[in-house]
Each structure stands twice: as C-alpha cells, then as structure tokens.
Design a protein that fits this description.
Blueprint lengths: L5 H18 L20 E12 L4 E18 L5 E11 L13 E10 L3 E6 L2 E7 L7 E2 L27 E3 L4 E5 L2 E16 L10 E11 L3 E13 L6 E14 L1
Antiparallel strand pairs: 1-2, 1-13, 2-3, 3-4, 4-5, 5-6, 7-8, 8-10, 9-10, 10-11, 11-12, 12-13
C-alpha cells in the first residue's frame, strides 16, 4: 500500500484551511451610528466653548470663553428634502468659578440639521454638508467626511490655504469604545474620530518662516452625542507680508445634558 507523502498532506491541510476561511462569514455587527448623535426632540447638550481668535490685524491671540446649548427641536425635512432633525443653538458668556459676573441670558446662535441615513449621519449648516459618522463603527474604519464641501469653504471669511483640500480629509475611528476625561468631566462609551492633524513650524520657532495648523478631532458618547471637539485652522505669514495669523480655533466639551 502506498501512503501520500508528507508534502501532499501539508498542501491539502493548507487548502482546507484557506477554503474554511473563505467560507466563514464575518460575525462583526456594527453599532448604529444614530446612537451617537443628538436626534431626540427635547434633548439638549450644554458645552463649554473656548474660541481662539486673532486680533490687532492678526498679531494678538485671544481666547474667548462661552457656554453653548444645542437643543433638538423637531423632525422636519432638510434642504435636500430628506427627513432630518432641526437643532437650535444658543450661546452666552461663560462664567468661571472665580468670576463674580452673573450668568448672562441665552441668545440665539443659529440652527443646523442632523440627517440620519441608513449607514451614515450628516450634518448641514450654512449649506455645508458633512458626514459626521459612518458605519461600520469600528477601529480604523475611514470615510471622506468632507466630500460634499466645496473648494475653499471658508474663503469668504479667512484668507488661508487650510481649507483648500478639505474634501480629501480622511475621517476614521481612532480606537474602539473607551472612557474619556477632560477638565474634570468624565465620559463613557466614547468613540474618537480623527479628521485632520497637520502642522508646519508649530509652535512657531522660526518667526521668519511660514507656519500653519489644521487639527480636527471629535468624540461621541453613546446615547448622548458629541462630548468633545477640537477644530483649529490657521496659518501664519512671516515678514515682509506679516507677521500675522489668520484663522480660528474652537475647543468645546460637554458640561451638561438631559
């Protein structure tokens, strides 16, 4: 009787393993992205917001502090005729623990729309449309979150080049669900979405050279919504054109919700 050689047995074992792997179905089930955004009428989130602005013709950097409240109004249709939720935004000056200034009343600060679709959630504000979240919700999954943005979307406000290629930004989930703490506030079941992290000559160690920064990251907590956001776009022009900076920066984090 002849027996198969060890090499043939080895090859057959590899073939069987590959065949099994190809036929095995992926058992990953994604969470629903709608669980990570504020889309229930009557719900609100209040944020502390630090706004970075450049004054005195771009030679001075100032941080203005506010509180901002986002309130879901109702289910309506967005500007593309799709079912979506209108969100009202209100703002007031922030009151620090060391300040004796009385709280200021809320004032209207505009509206935006959140449109949940089958596999993604879009936000539309000032006719700018962004895919904030996309399925599947898992580490490293990426998508073109700004693909609907026009060229130079901030051109009417800022003379910088940071927004020239925003449609090419790759949004992606940086890690899995985890806890997150910021300035004494603790959040759980959080997914972090990286959007942009580019800089040149930052901090500005060579004042005679061009500098720029594009930084965007958002963090969402399950059954709550956005709990942290960092969004910074600016560039520095050296002499003889400058020196000056143009652009803006926003850091906001949740301090209350219902």
């Amino acid at each position: 009787m002849r027996f198969p050689s060890l090499s043939r047995i080895f090859i057959a074992a590899i073939f069987a393993s590959v065949l099994f792997s190809c036929n095995k179905k992926e058992d990953f089930v994604s969470e629903d992205v709608k669980d990570y955004l504020l889309i229930t009428p009557g719900k609100y989130i209040t944020y502390r917001l630090d706004s970075m602005v450049f004054t005195n013709f771009g030679t001075t950097t100032e941080i203005h502090k506010y509180q901002v409240k986002h309130v879901v109004d109702a289910l309506i249709t967005d500007n593309l005729g799709r079912p979506g939720y209108r969100v009202y935004r209100f703002i007031r000056d922030s009151v620090d623990a060391t300040s004796w200034t009385p709280a200021q009343p809320w004032t209207n600060s505009g509206t935006y729309f959140i449109t949940p679709l089958t596999d993604q959630v879009e936000l539309i504000e000032d006719n700018l449309r962004i895919i904030k979240l996309h399925m599947p919700v898992r580490e490293s999954f990426s998508w073109k979150g700004n693909k609907y943005l026009p060229t130079d979307p901030y051109g009417q406000y800022y003379g910088f080049s940071n927004d020239d290629n925003m449609a090419d930004w790759d949004f992606y989930y940086d890690g899995g669900s985890t806890s997150f703490s910021y300035k004494g506030n603790n959040y759980s079941n959080v997914y972090s979405i990286e959007e942009a992290d580019e800089s040149f000559n930052v901090p500005i160690t060579i004042p005679t050279a061009y500098a720029a920064k594009s930084r965007a990251v958002e963090k969402y907590s399950k059954n709550i919504g956005l709990v942290y956001r960092e969004y910074e776009l600016w560039e520095y022009q050296p002499p003889p054109v400058g020196p000056y900076k143009t652009g803006f920066g926003v850091t906001q984090w949740m301090i209350d919700h219902n």
